[in-house]
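User: quick one
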Amino acid sequence: MGNSLGKLFTITSFGESHGRGVGTIIDGCPAGLAITEADIQRELDKRKPGGSIATTVRKEADKVEILAGIFNGKTTGAPICLVIWNQDVDFSEYERIRFLPRPGQADYTAFMKYGGFNDFRGGGRFSGRVTATLVMGGAIARKLLKLLKIEVMAHTIEIGGIRAKAKGLDEIRENRNKNPLRCADLKATEEMVKAIEAVKKEGDSLGGIIEGIALNVPAGLGEPIFDTVDGELARALLAIPAVKGVEFGAGFSAASKKGSENNDPFTLKNGRIVTTTNNAGGILGGISNGMPIIARVVIKPTPSIAKSQPTVNIRDMENASLTIKGRHDVCIVPRAVVVVEAMMTITLCDLAMRAGLIPRVIK
Amino acid sequence: MGNSLGKLFTITSFGESHGRGVGTIIDGCPAGLAITEADIQRELDKRKPGGSIATTVRKEADKVEILAGIFNGKTTGAPICLVIWNQDVDFSEYERIRFLPRPGQADYTAFMKYGGFNDFRGGGRFSGRVTATLVMGGAIARKLLKLLKIEVMAHTIEIGGIRAKAKGLDEIRENRNKNPLRCADLKATEEMVKAIEAVKKEGDSLGGIIEGIALNVPAGLGEPIFDTVDGELARALLAIPAVKGVEFGAGFSAASKKGSENNDPFTLKNGRIVTTTNNAGGILGGISNGMPIIARVVIKPTPSIAKSQPTVNIRDMENASLTIKGRHDVCIVPRAVVVVEAMMTITLCDLAMRAGLIPRVIK
Amino acid sequence: MGNSLGKLFTITSFGESHGRGVGTIIDGCPAGLAITEADIQRELDKRKPGGSIATTVRKEADKVEILAGIFNGKTTGAPICLVIWNQDVDFSEYERIRFLPRPGQADYTAFMKYGGFNDFRGGGRFSGRVTATLVMGGAIARKLLKLLKIEVMAHTIEIGGIRAKAKGLDEIRENRNKNPLRCADLKATEEMVKAIEAVKKEGDSLGGIIEGIALNVPAGLGEPIFDTVDGELARALLAIPAVKGVEFGAGFSAASKKGSENNDPFTLKNGRIVTTTNNAGGILGGISNGMPIIARVVIKPTPSIAKSQPTVNIRDMENASLTIKGRHDVCIVPRAVVVVEAMMTITLCDLAMRAGLIPRVIK
Amino acid sequence: MGNSLGKLFTITSFGESHGRGVGTIIDGCPAGLAITEADIQRELDKRKPGGSIATTVRKEADKVEILAGIFNGKTTGAPICLVIWNQDVDFSEYERIRFLPRPGQADYTAFMKYGGFNDFRGGGRFSGRVTATLVMGGAIARKLLKLLKIEVMAHTIEIGGIRAKAKGLDEIRENRNKNPLRCADLKATEEMVKAIEAVKKEGDSLGGIIEGIALNVPAGLGEPIFDTVDGELARALLAIPAVKGVEFGAGFSAASKKGSENNDPFTLKNGRIVTTTNNAGGILGGISNGMPIIARVVIKPTPSIAKSQPTVNIRDMENASLTIKGRHDVCIVPRAVVVVEAMMTITLCDLAMRAGLIPRVIK
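Assistant: Done. Structure below.
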């Protein structure tokens, strides 16, 4: 249960960190959409640890393979199955800590929920590696949103308490790909790099905030009162491990504003109704209003740290301490940027289909 | 579309602010649960404007009527239909401003989505009045959670930038019902009252933050990776008009913490595994860990203010200005507290049913 | 659980035979559709016992009331709530037989499923009266299908073993409304009437077969492999109490045909691809092929008969015998015709929406 | 859309006849269930053409491979992914007839629905080969139903108009596996074999009827009014290509019975309430009554025949004739028996989970 998302454009995720592989089924994609493995690979590569200072995890080729649903380079209307085979799977370390749940990870809750039958190796189903299945789904959705000229982009706006300066859309679009932290404020990036290096030495980790922006979303997406743009986005974004909160537009800062400050006045611009501010983050009453959709998510600091931590041996029911060995991202924020993009893309694609904006056959 | 929530315990909301009434269908409630109209009325009454300083809206009896699904005082296993008939429905004002979408409200987006066919009177389907349908669903869910000894309570923690001091559970439980703002910090409450009085004179409004707490939730609720406790809660909470963000546990503050600070160490307490801190807000990997579930939502300042605001006449496509007359809540935070409670209750009830914790017949 | 049907055009049924009333929520109906209570009443009236020889049940006005979702005579995009208030509710008889489950009825299974908490009066939720909620949903769906020029009509083809001769579409369209049995073969109708009169004297009952036909359904409806036209229709038709089987096109007779006899050859007709026979009943691979969709359902003989029947007293767990008093339809086939039509209409409407054929706003 | 079935026990089917392979995702299977590839292979092998007289299709090893969700021989609670790689894929013939839709097949409707982008090779997504994905799902569900001691078995009761004599449960259980036609009446089997041999010489094909029986189903399964046992079974069974009708218990024969003949009287047997007949097929009001569930499906004669057939060239829009070469089952009824079993098993498993009868962790 719980491994499918979406009503008309549906993704189903499967696979574990250290099993045969991880994969995605996309059901509901219109027929006739041109898709190559390269299209999907391009997105997957953004998720790679690469040479980033923040990340040092295992080296996986993460090569996508299309198993079904695409024929002669185009979608067929049948479910699309995409898979990445696992290769670099050393799980001796996980055998050692099997009964020592890592604080901040899902080890304990998975053990409780699945009666200890869960695949614990590398976090199994709860591994960050599973986000690759989301990115693959996002790569397909991105192609569909392109038909509507909707652009979704995310960028790092905070790491370890260091906040990036607000930047214009063009600067964000350009700068975020210029640096390994995917931050548009290159000055702040330098400070973030220093902060990451410092905690790395301590064997500790950092979190941060990612902002996702969707441009050219037409007014009218979202199905109130429950299947709202914000509700659906929040649910999808919280599927990303480590996300602990989501806000839209002014978000939590709205709590200290007055109505007259927070309301976005309507005005005409080139014959189109726009708002002069965007505290609503493009969403009113759960429906898109045509302004940029702005979502922000907080990523908690990576729970796997080198420092010793108190835990409980769940087999022997004894207090214990745990030191996690091996390779871990000091800060996953930069790698999560592409996942935030994927989840926003998938969600908006599904909502666009529900609103009848995407044809069933692409010609 | 979009008016149903839940997989096994499903609520469907219907009705408009100025139509015949508003109502809820609850499908999936086990048979044999004792329910009276008084049980539901008690929750509805908490949503009432009452004598609160913050609220001055229309006086509705808001009397619930059971239309179906309850027989001899007990649920039958058939869908439960609860309705509140509308009485106090003066909508002359809404005719006047029909083509002048109120900034911060759903007038414009509803107009765009439904081609102008939406019932615009009093915000129609987007009225805060529709939250009564959520509260009714919550009243049923609350009875079911009681069987599991799960307690859900919400309280105001911030209004107009004034933050309440953190209080213990007992103090929250007791104090929040002692004052009209439903805040456990009685000192802060006084300041909040002053802030509300001040903006009221200005014809302006205030927002705030509500914290919801669920106690005694067993470990193991939530269906990763998409139907997580946090994802489902967020989606449900964002159905409340004016909520612009949701966070769990440490929430956005986790962005500036180190992993060693944010991780909650496990320890044994009376033979049970607990965490010594609760930055996770009771949720790890989307699954409850047995600690209190802590969710916080931001409520934007009431968009309906007395001040003149710029808008666009959507019939004539001309810039215009709008002054809203009539009765409006200066700050809906206190009334939203019960709605936050309802949405958490409904969501946890559905997740408990998915986890197989609630029998199909209550004996 | 189980009281909602449809993915984009969703109906939720509620209410019991002897409670406050029965009703329907329709969620997902496009905005701007003109709907009056008269439109719905017209369909409801077809379900009335009327002066038919076959039926003698209680006299209910069955007046529909619109509670939500329609404003100024048009749908708003919000959920539509339609209700019929119960009036003629004498349930003394049901108290008497409360623990004597009627053979062929749902008394026993409802008792087992809901632990005896079900509203047993008049069959409660399992009453034929609940089909009025389906007919109301069908009345809305019919208006939407009209936009696509799709026509759905059902007619009686067999009662008590007497089979009507096959008739042309025009004859069916015309004749079925000319006689209380809704049969297009007026000769056979006479025999059916005699058969009904005969069993009525015996205190017994009869069943029959209804054929539903959908014309002008475009090729391409249906979502294989599970949400097929035939699968969705069958599920919807089996929601009608007393239906015990569904077949499409040649149906069960295909078992004794050869492939060369059963295959429908394709040919061109006025530049359009058609089949020269229609053994497929308009459905190939779960997808409509543009030919008339032909579904046939068997209605079992009314289980409520005047004859004494063996049963078990479920309170005392003793064998017992039961004689049901009161008014009962000798043959519900004629009244079920409109319900078959409703279920086909609702299902095709939902499938047409999934296929993207119905706009979200009707202009 | 449409490739998932089930609410709590969900299967998602993917893959095409001549692509990389076909597969199934099972989401919602409880953790701790022992499953080996052999368990699944055993069911798959029943679907094999084998040495049967009726079938001569391509020789595929049809070896299942577990890709996810099973760890150390037990389910983990994560989605299970099972795949069969395609091997014997000669599709030159299909290129030849690409624009000549085969009568009785989904070629034409798939072309229309997916704008010609569907994978047409071997019927692609509409191939009988896809039923292997259903059988794999059924193999898992069967293990779960075994926990409840529910037994599902299907057998051939008619081929080419030759009807098997009714047999007792023991005889069915034993005999159906003794002969390639999976018929319990060994005498009738001989006649069926002769009929098949005869039409084979003509280059023609035969259909038939399969009966599925579920034993030990507890009373109380099914969620009226839409998610009924019969409705859900029918929808699932109609996912099997070539099924054109479904009936329960007395089925279509009920149309010519009187109520007094068709009603199943209740009586006590060993302290348990049973019915003395089973015209209801174990289902009353959409809910199981504890008696054997009896479903019958009609399988149309295999549409792929060697005889020349009229069709239309859909590229050139010209009448044409088609002779299909290659290997085809003369009668797929025997192979469909295991698929009927699978679909009944999957559906009852899902309904048992909804009724709360299967724990979330198997210990």
